[in-house]
Here is the input.
Amino acid sequence: MMTDPLVARALAEARPVVFWLDRPEHPEPAPPLSADLEADLVVVGGGFTGLWTAVTAAEADPGRSIVVLEADTVAFGASGRNGGFCDASLTHGLENGIAHWPDEIDTLIRLGNENLHGLLDVVARHSIDCSPEPTGALDVAVAPWQTESLAKSAVVHEAHGRHVTLLDAAATRAEVDSPTYLGGLWHHDGVVMLDPARLAWGLLRVAKSLGVRFFENTPARSIEAVQGTESTTVRIRTDGGSVGARNAVVATNAFRPQVRRIRRFVVPVYDHVLVTEPLTGNRLATIGWSNRQGLSDVGSQFHYYRLTPDDRILWGGWDALYHFGNRVDPTVEHSPSTSRLLATHFFETFPQLEGVAFTHRWSGPIGTTSRFTCAWGTSHRGRVAWSAGYTGLGVGASRFGARVALDLVDGQETERTGLEMVRRSPFPFPPEPLRWPAIQLTRRAIQRSDRRGGRRGPWLTMLDRFGIGFDS
Here is the structure.
């Protein structure tokens, strides 16, 4: 266990700034909306879902007039704050998908693969400089009970045609050297490491080149259905003006939505991240990591970590903090105790890196649902569609989510809209004041489960029976 002074020194110069966004090539923000406009489609939210919605709609119909309203700046939220794990999974992992949609799982696997390939195709066609690395991912066991879990997972993945390799402790440490590793499962494909901010900024450039108009620092205050003589339209009102449109897509994810129904199914939880200084060649050699996989441990409370393009270690996860009333604002972003805990866990995992300093620390809200996957819906007489709740896998799944939302708002019956995952909503979270204690009870039960060798206990067993849970 690292002593507090050593952790304090490692964190002493860490700035409360998002690493991915902390660079001079950050695009200049678009001006806020200051007039009333008309458009064919208005998108509320300038994160990955909103950007993919705009790009997809503009490429499919070059004549479509599209406006994007962003409350802050493009990629301000989870799209710029995540770890950059771009996963093919649409179901928050294969086992979760099988548990919820066993009859559709092979279709969901295929659609997830197609989605990832489509994303990478856009990156290549438009020369988006987001440093994609098809490294795969390595799940590691750090407790004896987790090695058995990995062995079972390997069987399931192989049965569904996934390319995985089960590793013992020595083989795992040959990939990445930590004294805590007892085994591993290497997922050779389906996961790409990338720079999420540069992906978002690249999509912004592409969308603008296709004629999409952006207005930043423009929070949408309300959405109204307007009944005309021949059809219904919508009008989105902001502080400086409004946009009338045939259709709208709400893509605010964890942030407060203008569609009240979203709040039943999506809760925001704060995830915390640290980033080290660049590792020298000697320091990097002490841990290996030559294949540069994205890593995560496999407890219910887990860390995820990766190498950045300039050989820093991004280290996040563990705590998933929910604030009463779905609260999302800057005053709850920074948790010194969580940063210290994460730093302690980092040096327990890599004691050979003692003396390495952290340069950045941040947090941000993740939108999660009770089934850990995205949810969709429509409102305002079918003129508005929404997509939210990616539970940490939105870098890749947001492209699929955007395509489903466009299908819904355009009234298109597709293979995507026919999925049970799309047609059936997740189990709703209880309203406040019950939501907060229910989530805290679940968090404590998860912590006990990890301490007791993965045994779920009565509360988690009951949630499992209903196919619901809480995660980041």
Q: What stands out?
A: DSSP finds 15 helices and 18 strands in the chain.
